[in-house]
User: Fold this.
Amino acid sequence: MSQVRAFLAIDLEDDLKPKINKLIKEFKKIDTRINYVELTNLHLTLKFFGEIDTNGLELLENRIAKVMSEFKPFNIKIKGCGAFPNNNHIKVIWVGIDEDFLIKELHDRLDKEFVKLGFDSDKKFSTHLTIGRMKSAKNKNQVKSTIEEYSDFEIGEMTVNSISLKKSTLKPSGPIYEDLTVFEL
Assistant:
């Protein structure tokens, strides 16, 4: 039985990456330990499945395709910066999605299908793009100040016209993501 570490995501359009890179450079000016997401790996996660049996991929893909057939391409606005769990206890630094109603609706419909297949429901889904993971509290206040300074930072708009079921291979140098299946809206 073969397994694959998988997740479902919306890829970020390339023309938005320079603005996000500008934001990342602001954090890099701070003397702290943050592991940044490679620009090529930036995505909005709709569902993290973890290790799944490859024999079940077709069933999963059929459920995704069914939900995708109910949606048309839609626009999202990428804006702002924040932290999880919060700005005083920073673990993850993220870029936000403004007016995310359609993404949440897409997520919720997909999540219902995934629960039918035995996956846990995502009760606390939050639309965001992770840009870094804070690995120490060194200069936390400077990081917090930068997050607050860029809380309304306008990155841009993009059209969501597909989602990807991805394979994640963990390497010491960072994860490698490969598309298993791309689903068009």
Notes: The first strand starts at residue 3 and ends at 11. The longest helix spans residues 101-116.
